[in-house]
Amino acid sequence: SRPEPCTVVIFGATGDLTHRKLVPAIYNLAIDGELPPGVKIVGFARREKSDEEFRQGLEELNRKVSRSGHDDAIWAKFQESISYHQSEFTDADGYKRLAERLDAIDRDRGGKGNRLFYVASAPEFFDDILTQLKGAGLNKAKDGCWARVIVEKPFGTDLATAQHLNQVVNRTFHEKDTYRIDHYLGKETAQNIMVLRFANAIFEPLWNSRYISHVQVTCAENLGMEGGRGGYYDKSGALRDMVQNHLLQLLSLITMEPPTDLSADGVRDEKVKVIRSLRQWDTPEKVAKNVVRAQYTAGHVDGQPRPGYREEDRVDPESMTESYVAVRLLIDTWRWSGVPFYIRMGKQLPKKATEISIHFKDAPCVLFNALPGGVPGSNVLVLRIQPDEGISLRMVSKIPGTSLRLEPVKMDFHYSTSFGKGSPEAYERLLLDAMAGDATLFARRDEVEEAWKFIDNIEHAWHQSTTPPPMAEYVAGSWGPKEADELLQQDGNVWRRL
Ligand code: BG6
Asked: Is 246 a catalytic residue?
């Protein structure tokens, strides 16, 4: 199905996400001719602002971040579709006024009344916004139209709050009209995981415990708590902020069984099975053995001095929140029995890079045993999620020359050179999917809750047990704590160097 004209109402419209991601995404869709005609944007937030002030603020940011640059003439036309609606999130009257305003927009557009509500406010208002939408009858679509909701992360802070939020959402909107966004699923390279696995014949036969020794998922960031982020982050931590959602989602794409079709439920049925099959680290002993948490101490990143985590703005000086986490995961399914999966995520690491590496078992190397050093390493398939998106395969080759010596070489595919054009931003694809009614790349209720079950056990051991596993340290600008290296050494593995 195709994306349809609609009004996008963004709650939390004065926030960073709206300015840096959402509006630039819609602008770029318009430039690329992908946006259905007649899309209107209404920003909903508490601050007093005129339409004009709102538009100016958006324009300023669009100039800085827009993927395909900023064109004054195009913007001038585009901004006519943007307006601002001031209201408290808890004020029923504000929603009544919103309903009237949306009706007026519909009339201008010739009666078409599709609405896409995007809940991107601070998470403590998610409940209120949904409840008020229902109070004003905005959750009900008009005849022949639709009303859908996109809910931003964080989707709860643990299983109980996620279940509660799910109840509130499902009391307000049909599950089929509910889009829990995880922007990692909108990344081009994440979408390509299924294509790589299921459109090629050579990988899937090897994609199991017989041939794969282990898998690593690394998400490195070279930033800390800039822009006042510490306030949110210190209550969340790396595990909740990135692992519960983005990284478990990537893992499920890597490990799921082939779905029977590409429908939203066909794909999500398979993803949730994997998350449900994660072995639970449900005692402090298991957590201590399989999970490493750490905080950065002062150091240098990109040549710049950085404070330690506990010295950051809006972070508790005695904080026990992790800025780094490494986890060993086991998936108890027929395909993956015995294969360790390692996930690591950290702030203030040397660079920004996300990649997944599939490490294959060694070839039986009887033939080359006698060579000095034997066979140098095994096959590794690397999926670079970002930046420098692409895929590479590490193989062993003979060094040209008169003697037999071996060296690893790389077969490398780069999106930028193979396709000669940039990928759309994740939010572009996802907004378009929501306008088209396709929820495949959004998390379903059960996926979110199963992921929280796994995360909750670990958080519980850290924060509620009488024998909490220790907090390790790493210097800002290093690749993480030595304890994370030891986690892999126990299995005879090492982290891939990025
Ligand atoms: C967000 C997290 O969901 O994802 C941030 O809250 C993180 O802490 C960000 O930095 C990373 O997204 P990306 O697309 O820059 O890798």
From this structure: yes
